[in-house]
Amino acid sequence: MRPLVFCLGLLAATGSARAQHHTISAAGLETVHLCDPLTRVDSLFAHALDTLIVGEADTRWPARVVHLDDHRFVLFESSWADTARVWRISTTSPQYQTHRGVHVDMPLSTFKRGGEDLTMHFPEGRVVLGINRDSVSALLDDSTSALLQEHPSDTWKLVSGAGHITQLFVSGSCRRPAH
């Protein structure tokens, strides 16, 4: 009987490890904060890899990417103007959530029931959902984004139970005020 109890205990421990949630907030992700040195990422993720982000006019800046299970990732980006510090953190993994439980794969219908303080922006052809109470932004699934771009005046009518969050991100400026 003891081996069975041990196996059940092991299964329970493994399941709880998978369900473990980590926090993404306006400050950053876990112990890596916005404006920390990009090298700080290695203290939380030893298997982070160097990558390069390419922007408009072929501008480039370094980033660190952490590949997770199921083709999910966490990306720590610097800026073209400051390549040494973290300016943006994004994730496609539901294991990272806000203090109030917002996470990737969460249905948009959850927000309609909760009376959330949300904003919708359309920068550079993307639909960005601002989750104001958590100071976090989200990208939405492609079909919902396409509907919202076609009918921006009916934004909240079009958000149905089928739409969901595909990415959470936080960003900020690391520029210091002039004295």
Structure characterization notes:
The protein is an alpha+beta fold and 179 residues long. The protein has a single domain, classed as protein yfey like fold, CATH 2.60.460. It is built from five helices and twelve strands. The chain has an eight-stranded antiparallel β-sheet. The protein has a four-stranded mixed β-sheet with strand order 3-2-1-8. Strand 1 (22-25) and strand 2 form a beta hairpin. It is globular, with a radius of gyration of 19 Å. The N and C termini lie far apart (71 Å).
* Unreliably modeled segments: 1-18
Number of strands: 12
What is the beta-strand fraction?
A: 25-35%
What is the chain-wise order of helices and strands? HEEEHEEEEEHEEEHHE
The level 1 CATH classification is: Mainly Beta
* Backbone shape: globular
Give me the Rg, rounded.
19 Å
State the secondary-structure class. Answer: alpha+beta
CATH architecture designation:
Sandwich
CATH superfamily, by name, is protein yfey like domain
Helix residue percentage: 10-25%
> CA-to-CA gap between the ends?
71 Å
Structural domain count? 1
Main β sheet profile: 8 strands, antiparallel
Q: What does the secondary structure layout of this molecule look like, with pairings?
A:
Layout: H1 2-18, E1 22-25, E2 28-29, E3 32-33, H2 41-44, E4 49-54, E5 60-67, E6 73-77, E7 88-91, E8 96-97, H3 109-114, E9 118-121, E10 128-131, E11 136-140, H4 142-150, H5 155-158, E12 165-171
Parallel strand pairs: 1-8
Antiparallel strand pairs: 1-2, 2-3, 4-5, 5-6, 6-7, 7-12, 9-10, 10-11, 11-12
